[in-house]
Amino acid sequence: MKGSKKIIATLNALLADELAARDQYFIHSRMLSEWGLVRAAERIAHEMEDETQHASELIRRILFLEGLPAMTPSKLTIGADLPDIFAKDLAVEYTVVKNLRAAIALCETEQDYVTREILEKMLDDTEEDHAHWLEQQLGLIKLVGLQNYLQTQMTS
């Protein structure tokens, strides 16, 4: 099915964001694991899997619309320590939320309701799961202090 060029371009821009988020979560999960922060590493690895699924959904939709997926990720921002990792990952999620909302509005204008529905599910996942969890963790660090938080992320 031939899709709107605007929609395909927008989906490719979203794909670049999802690929960057995936790659950023990937390196962050490995860093956290190496530091012995196993619980945080496992959660970030879970987020990497979610971003991979989002990228897969976008690729499938682009191909369905007879477009060519652009597989170049956006720029990565790698954290230096746990709070920095969470803050940088949250910044990526906020960017994705903003871009998803704009894409959903475009889908409405272009009357592509199937793509809109796909993106609405991704928006819900990004806001309710990814961004919310990162906001909670940064709040917990402020509440209990970094050292106490770090202790909760280790396993023996």
From TrEMBL:
Protein residues bound to Fe cation 2: E51, E93, E127, H130
Catalytic reaction list: Fe(2+)(in) = Fe(2+)(out)
Gene Ontology molecular function, alphabetical: ferric iron binding; ferroxidase activity; heme binding
Chain sites annotated for binding Fe cation 1: E18, E51, H54, E127
Domain of life: Bacteria
Annotated positions binding Fe cation 3: H46, D50
Residues in Ferritin-like diiron domain copies: 1-145
Family: Belongs to the bacterioferritin family.
Protein name stated in the entry: Bacterioferritin
Source species of the chain: Pseudothauera nasutitermitis
Gene: bfr
